[in-house]
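We read letters as residues; the fold follows as tokens. Both lines appear below.
***
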Amino acid sequence: MVAEAVDAPLAQRVLDPACGSGTFLFHAVRHYLKAAAAAGMSDAEAIAGATERIYGIDVHPVAITLARLTYLLAIGRERLQAPGRPNVHVPVYLGDSVQWRSPQASLWTREGLTISIDDELQLWASSLYFPSRLLDNAPAFDRLVEELARRAGSRSPGSPPPSLATVFSRFAVHPDDQEALSSTFATMCGLHDEGRDHVWSFYVRNLARPLWLSREENRVDRLIGNPPWLAYRFMTIEMQDAFRRMSEERGLWAGASVATHQDLSGLFLVRAVELYLKPGGRFAFVMPLAALSRRQFAGLRRGLYQTDGGQVAVEFGTPWDLHAVKPNLFRVPPSVICGALAEQPKALAAAAERWIGRLPGRN
């Protein structure tokens, strides 16, 4: 799938929006490094290039830890120990790729990112605001937020926020952004004084990157991975409500008669394309075989979806039927669905490329 979808690895930016333990990230990184070696790039250049172009997001903290380790394994010990290698920032983030949260929870504008921290414990709403310039460099932004949290936590409770002059200098914060960052730091100090700052730096760093990737100028060339397969009947009540609302808006809801069989994977695919893929960009996702023919996926197969930002059109390619690959890779038969974000939709073909084979064992 990686070799098929990522046809120009040195030039294309790749995202796995449900990376799990990092299998697709591993192969995407290795694919990039092989091309880098063929192009005569140094180890330092290859590492920098891979980490600037291959991203992962997942909602599960344990999966993220494993995926980051898998990413480093893909780079390999020899490269990581090579003289002159750059500091390695693994671009794998804990985040909500679907962005289920309401628009009021966070707001991204051209000027920057505002994260609401209003809750029942407060008598008034507060927010953390980060100017957009600060988020363009992911490693620097992560270190900046960590430094702000450290300084907020090391001061005496109730004392005034200390000066950020050295922080501004160290992180080259633009003069126009310094006042806003000082205000955010003061809010973080207040959260610390209330005993509520222990998760905010972690939360901000991981919320910011999916939102940053969804900005039009930051969207990727390729999406690849295995979206979560979760039937409607196994979702929580709150998730069912959000799933149905978002599915109805996009023409994916197939009606009450098959409601229990509707699956998160279809909405996830559409939402990932909607949020993260450039026009003309391509995707390849492992999906239930039912997506190729069953009624609950009929809306997905049409390739035209109504979203908050207008219509999203997908030109589907020929799917892969993996049912005859043994032993079974999943508890239900799998397939691969590929396509591109296009100007006009092309419905998913009924005929699939059938794969037959026997693997030495199950993973």
The mean pLDDT is 90. DSSP finds 13 helices and 13 strands in the chain.
